[in-house]
Amino acid sequence: VHALHGAACLLVADLKCATDELGQHGLDRDPEMRLWRAALASASGDADTAAHNFLESASVLATYPKTLRERFALQGATALIATGRGSLAGALTDLVLKDQPEPAAAAEALDLDGKRAQAAGKLDDALALWDKAAAFGDPRVRAWALYARVQALQDSGRASAADTIKALDGLRFAW
Q1: Closest Cα to residue 88, out of 105, 71, 70, 73?
Q2: Which parts of the chain sit beneath pLDDT 70?
Q3: How far apart are CA 83 and CA 94, in angstroms?
Q4: What is the per-residue pLDDT for 22?
Q5: Which residues of 161-174 are buried (b: 16+ CB within 10 A; e: fewer)?
Q6: Residue 137, Cβ neighbours under 10 Å: how many?
Q7: Is the alpha carbon torsion for 72, 74, 87, 51 positive or negative?
Q8: Closest CA to 66 of 106, 30, 32, 34
Q9: What is the pLDDT of residue 65?
Q10: How far apart are CA 59 and CA 67, in angstroms?
Q11: DSSP string, 82-136
């Protein structure tokens, strides 16, 4: 009952309720709870805990319905990238991309793959992935991808300060 109530609370973004319910010690031995606790940690902004729990629950993720699988895989990839383990995030973005994802999920997976490519020192690949992500038209992901692109070009010295300012100015109302 605690697991179901906690999952329902998490899905409606009631993080206090989800924390109380999913934090019950009686759920500690349930391998599925690592996945839900990972999603809760992600929603709460705790990337370290999220990344750890997503890695521990990766085998359970494939058994979930597509909508939840996409959501959790993207949260997991985000947490892994944020904690410097981007090389491990590829399996999660691939899980999303291989299963005819919704356009927003595909765009987000490509944006995350761009971040992974950038971290691996493959700037040209990252730029191409961000362009693909932006082309999906999802306003939220488009803004993230184009911002990442502008930052990467500036950081690499491929864009002047004037070009960067102009590009950022164009993004002010993107999302």
Answers
A1: 73
A2: none
A3: 19
A4: 97
A5: eeebeebeeeeeee
A6: 10
A7: negative
A8: 106
A9: 95
A10: 17
A11: HTT-HHHHHHHHHHHHTT---HHHHHHHHHHHHHHHHHTT-HHHHHHHHHHHHHT
Which pTM value belongs to this model? 0.92
Half-sphere exposure in the Cβ direction for 129 (13 Å, CA): 22
DSSP letter (8 states) at residue 64: S
The mean predicted confidence, pLDDT, of the chain is: 95
CA distance 25 to 97: 35
The pLDDT, as a whole number, for residue 137 is: 86
Question: What pLDDT is recorded for position 31?
Answer: 85
Burial class (CB in 10 A: 0-12, 13-18, 19+), 16: exposed
What per-residue confidence (pLDDT) applies to 174?
A: 81
**Helix axis angle, 103-119 relative to 139-156, nearest 10°?**
10
Question: Rounded distance, CA 112 to CA 92, Å?
Answer: 10
